Amino acid sequence: MRQGLILLGAAMISISLMGCNSLFTPQADIVERVSDGDTLVLKIANEKKLTVRFACIDAPEIPHSQTEKRSKITQDVNQFTWGVKAKTRVEELIKQTDNRVKLNITDSDRYGRKIAEVRLKDGTFLQQVLLKEGLAKVYRQYLNKCPSRNIVQEAEAQAQQQKIGIWGDGKFIDPWDYRKANK
C-alpha cells in the first residue's frame, strides 16, 4: 500500500511538471541594443553587458564616424547603405520578440566578444534570415566553427541564385574586403 502511494505521488508530480517547461528551459537573453548587422549588446546579471558577434556570417559595415557618415565615396555609400539595412532588419526581428534572443555561444574573439548563433524566442535563426534576405554573407574564414554551416550555406546560395539584396548589387564589396581596404 505504501509503495503504491509513493508511485502514485511520483506519477502525479511528473504529470504536473510536464506542463511546466518554462521552469526548465533557459530564459532568453535581453538585447539592450543592436550595434550593427551582426553584433548585439545584451544585458546580463549585475547590470553588466555582453557583446555578441553573430557566428557564421559577416554583414556589411555601418558608418561609425561623422566623416564616414558624410562620405560620398561610392564604395562607402554602398557598404553603409547595406549595413544600415542589415542593422535595421535585425532590430525589426528582435523587436518582434520583446528584445529577447537565445544564444548558442561557439567562441570568443580577440575583442572579447562572444561569438554565437542567435535565435529569436520562437526559434528563428537570425543568421539564416539575414542570408536569405541578401543582407549578409557567409563568413567562410570561420565556417569550421559554425554548427549550422549547412543551413547558412544553403540560405546564402538561395539568395545568390535569386540575386536578392547584396547579390543583386554589382557594386557591393564583401565586408572583409571593405575593412581590409579601409584600415
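Above is the first protein from milestone M3; the second protein from the same milestone is given next.
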Amino acid sequence: MAENTAISWAHDTFNPWEGCTRISAACDHCYAAARAERFGHGELWAGKLRRTSADNWKLPLRWNREAAHWNGPRRVFCASIADVFDNQAPQAWRDDLWALIEATPLLTWMLLTKRPQNIARMVPPAWLINPPENVWYGATIENRATLAQRAHHLADVPAALRFWSCEPLLEDLGDVREWLERRRVFGIGGVHLIIGGGESGPKARPPHPDWFRSLLGQCAEMDAVFHLKQWGEWGFGSAPARCVEDGPGTFLQAVSITIDGKSYDGDRLHQFGDGTVMVRVGKKSAGRLLDSVLHDRMPGERHRDDCRICFTDLSNPSAAGGPNGLCRSCNEELPF
C-alpha cells in the first residue's frame, strides 16, 4: 500500500508488504495491528506477512518522475504497516525493495525500524561501503530500554543520515547528547534528527511536556534537528501546567480543567508526580505546538534562519554565537 500522507515528516508512505510482530512497548497499542484485526486480517500480526500489489510497487517510480519538478526533497516513509528489517520477511522481497530504491534516486527513503540490529546484514553490501544519499535509517526509541537496545546498532550502520522516532515517547530519555555529539564531532555514527510524538488511539499513554523539551534542548545544543510530529490524544497547550502546591513537594489532585469553555475531568485527566496535568482532548485538538512553537524542521530543508552552507539553525543562540561572527558548525561567515 502506498499513498500520500498527512504525516508531518514525510510526503508519501510506501509499504512493500503488510504485517509485523510486536516486540516492545511502542507496539502495545499498534494502530496497524488494530486496523488489520478490524478487517479480519489479524494473522498479519501473528507471523504471516502479505506482499502488496504490483500496482502499488509502481507508485514510487511515478513519485520519482514527479520529484524532478519539486523544489526540495520528496521523503518516503517506509514502512508504516510493516518493518523492512523484520526477520520474517523474505529477503527476496527486500532485494526487490533495494532495487526500487536504487531506481528512484530523487526520493529520500526513510527506513524506520524497531530492528536496527538487522540493517547491516540485510541491505546490499555495497550500501555499507558507499551509503546511498537517498536512504535514511531510523530506529524507534520510545523509552530508556529501547535506547539502550537500539541506539548503538543504528550508530554502527554507515548512512547518509540517521534518525530516531521517539513516538510514542513513553518516558524521559535522559542525556542523549553522546549520540548527537558523535555526529557533530566525528561526522559518523551519530543521530541527525529526532522526531518526537505522543501516542494516539483509545488506549494512548500521556507524555510529559518536559520529555520533549529535553530532546529539543539537546538537539539545539548539538546542532541536530528536532521535529515534533504530534501530541497525540493528550494535550498540554492552554491547560494549566501545574496544580496548586499543597505543602513542600506535594500537589493537590486535579479534579476538573476547563479549556475553551469545555470541561474535562475523571479519566480524561492525567497528573504526573510533579503536578503537571495532561488533558485527553483528542489528537486534532492537542495539535503539534510545544510551548506555542511549531517544531517542523527537517534535515536538508532551508529556512530563513539557516546557515547558507551547512543549514545550521542560526536562530539558536549556541549556533549563532561563533567566534568572529562565524557559524559555529562550518565556520562560514554569518549573513548578518
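Note on the second protein: The first helix runs from residue 31 to 38.
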